[in-house]
Every structure is written in C-alpha cells, then in structure tokens.
Amino acid sequence: MARPTMRWAAAPWVHTEGIGSAFVDTPFAALKSGNASSTGSSGADQMTDAPKLHREPPISPHLLTGGLISPPLWRWHITMLTSILHRVTGMALYVGALIAAAWAIALAQGPEQYAQFKGLLGSLPGKVVMFGLTLSLFYHLANGVRHLVWDTGHGLDVKSANASAVLVLAFAAAATLAVWGIAGMTGAI
Questions:
Q1: How would you class 144 by CB atoms within 10 Å of its CB: exposed for 0-12, middle for 13-18, buried for 19 or more?
Q2: Do 35 and 56 form a contact (C-beta atoms < 8 A)?
Q3: CB within 10 Å: which end of the chain, N or C, has fewer?
Q4: 3-state secondary structure of 7
Q5: Are 13 and 26 in contact (CB under 8 A)?
Q6: Tens digit of each residue's pLDDT (9 = 90 or more) over 141-172
Q7: Model confidence over 5-32: pLDDT tens digits?
Q8: SS3 for 64?
Q9: Is 2:40 a contact under the CB 8 Å cutoff?
Q10: Residues linked to residue 72 through DSSP beta bridges, in sequence order
C-alpha cells in the first residue's frame, strides 16, 4: 500500500518519511529520488537516477601504472613519508625493547655476561643500532606529539601538515645528534 506524499509549500525542508521526519535540514527538492518521491515508495521503484556502471576498484598508491619501468601511480610527498616512518620507527622501538630486556638479563646474570653485552653494544654495529634506536625514539616521540595536535583539529591543512613534517624530521635529527654529541664529550661512547 503506497503512502500519499505531502508537499509543504511553507516549509520546504520538511519531509514525511523516516525517523525524525519533523526536522530535516535538506531542502525538499534534494530529497527527490527518481519516481520514488512523486509516486510513493514501492519496492520496484529505482532509488536514484545514477546509471549502474561497473567501476574498477581503486589502485593502491604503491603500485606502478604500466610495469617496472613506469612511474609510480602517486607522487610521493612528505606527509606520506612521515606516516611510513612512524610505523617503521614504532617497529624499531619494539626491537629496542628487546635489546633493553637483553641488557637487563645480562645485568642479572653477572659481570662476565654484562661485559660481553657491553662489548657487543660498544662495537661499531652495536653503535649503529643504538644510533638508529635513538633516532627512532626521537622521531616517534615528535611525530606522536604531532598526531596529538592533529587530534585537537589543528594543523590538518596541507601547508601546516607539511611544515610540521619538516619540523618533526628536524627535531629528530637535532635531538639525536645532541644526545650522541653529549655522550661523546662525556666519554660514554
């Protein structure tokens, strides 16, 4: 059974269908959907006037457009880089947590094992890993603060996002170099 539709001349934003039909802020003309709004709503009526075309699914940004020698589909930008680096540094900090656990275990096992662990971290590969962990820590910290600022609704426009990305990268580099510089001057490394 089809319901009769009512047209409100004085209040064009009011419609008579659905929950909360007493207040809708969409003009009545925008609520029309093909024949459904003028003849009532029956299951056979089409809801929209849009053609039903088969659309290809979207392509991931890392995929190439025409093979291995073609350019990437999306242009790289700094906020894309900082998003990827945030994930990578988060995983690196998990490795750092395992190194800290190994340090605690070596410390608990006695002076010989602790000296071996210190020798491993004091070697060139150990120092490279520790430098990378320091850089990861400061980057992840700064980018986490950036995300907290974004959660307040600030700095989301393209210009601010790009500027904050540069600031995060600069802070991470400067803080890492400062910590390693101080460690070098005090003889800790």
A1: middle
A2: no
A3: N
A4: coil
A5: yes
A6: 999 999 999 999 999 999 999 999 999 999 99
A7: 555 454 444 445 545 444 445 555 554 5
A8: strand
A9: yes
A10: 64
